Amino acid sequence: MPHLLYALLLAAFAAGLPAAAHAADCSGRFAAGYRVLRLDSGRQVAVWYPTAAEEKRLARSPNGFAARVARDAPPASCPRVPLVLFSHGWGGCALQSIALTEELARHGYVVAAPDHADATCAIGADEVNLGRMRIDKSFLDPASWNDRSEIGRLHDLRAVIRRVAADPQLARIADTARIGAAGHSLGGYAAIGMAGGWPAWKTPEVKAVLALSPYVLPFMVHGTLARLQVPVMYQGAALDFGMTTSLEGPQGAYAASAPPKFFVKLDGGTHFEWTNLLCAGTPDVAACLRARPNAALIGLYATAFFDRFLKGKPGELLSSPGSGLSAYRFEMR
Q: How many domains does one find in the chain?
């Protein structure tokens, strides 16, 4: 990676206390607040948000990687900022990708991630329950999928919107009419579904979709990707043979989607590049972003995308050549 790009990445995701944020538009860099909500279904939701409070390290995970947040701190005093929904991968959990979810909060977003029915690593629990890994249809038979497949994820995510809007503190800062849907793997499927991949799932509040190594084959088989009416960013990885291959080429998901659209392909990296596994051996998110270029690139492009389409900020990075990536493509209109 060119030295200049790497220096920019480190500057954008530097560790330490947040820089002064501007209350007028919630710009600048904040600390990451964190709290846990509960849905009527009993499912828990992890929520990150900008705050002025001091971050503290939470308990370490077995691989040494840990969150650094301001637990239950009040949100920053600024106007409402976009809500980003995060849907985890099959067998993952709400806390599976904190290098992204924490960092989005530091850049002025409220991020809410529920544990879905198949979550094997529930919020606040140390044990892993592989028995929860159930799926409605086979991944190998995408033609059998329809708008009833994994609809529980849609119900969870819509319930999260209502729950955040009803929370006295979060309602002051979260704009639930300006939502980004993000998801990894099966979570990417859910995010695309909410943007109109399944017309019955269309959620008007969703204004942009970040699909991280998403399971897109059902939408491709049924020819629905062209119906997406919101900007979409696909992210894949060079060694993610199971999912990224379905995003590329003249028959891939990127080609089938309507603009504005973006395709970020990481250099190296597997299907788990968007999870905490990438950060194993580093103490926290700041250290991971310094030590793992792909972690920094994932967050850098995700933030630029949401800044452009949820906050209306100009995004020079989005029209750049994609330095440091295996491939980068975009089409505005």
A: 1
